[in-house]
Amino acid sequence: MGNETFFKISLIALFTAFSIIRINFNLKAMKAGYQTVIEESKIYSIILALFICYEVFTLFLFLLFPETLSWGSMAIPAWGRWMGVALGILSLLLFIWVHIYLGENYSSKVRIAQEQRLVTTGPYRFLRHPMYSAFYLLHLAVFLISSNWFLGISWTLLLTLIISIRVNREERMLVEKFKEEYLAYMEKTGRFFPAFRLKRKRAGS
To answer: Which residue, among 64, 199, 200, 195, has the nearest Cα to 127 in the 3D structure?
Structure first.
C-alpha cells in the first residue's frame, strides 16, 4: 500500500471515528430527554448543516475523484503529512476526552437544560471550548494529510465562521444560566487555548 492510499485511509478513519462518537453521544442525549430552557436559533442549525454537507461533499471528491481538486495540491513533504496523521489522532483523543467529561450535558445544539451542570473538570479545567479546539486540530490535520490548500483553507475558514457565530451565543447562554459561577470560570480559562497568566506578586512579598 502506497503512502497516498494510507493518507486517504487515515482521513476516512478519522472522520468515521468522529462520526461514531458524535452519533453515540447524540443518542444518549436524546434518551436523557432533559427539558430545554434556552436554545440556539434554527437559522444557525441550517448554516451548520450546510457546512457539514460541504465538507462531506468536498471530502468525497478528494477521495474518489482526486482530479477534480488536483489544482489545490501542495508540495507538503512526507514528514509533514505524517505529522498531520499524528495531529488527527490527537484531535480524536481530545474529542473523546471532551465527550467523556460532558457526559449527559452533551448536546449537538447550543442549548441549556434545566438539569445541566457546569463542567469544569477534565479538558474543561483548561479550556472553555475544548471541543472546538479538537475541531481546529482535525482541520489542521486534514490540511496536512490531504496536502491540498483548497480543502485546508476553505474548511478552516468556514469552521471559524461557524464557531464565531456559535461561541458568543453559547457563552451568553451559560452566563444567563450560571451567572457569577461562569463569569469566574471565564477568568481562569482560555476559549480554545489554555490561558497562561502570570500571577502578580503581592507588595512586600
So the answer is: 195
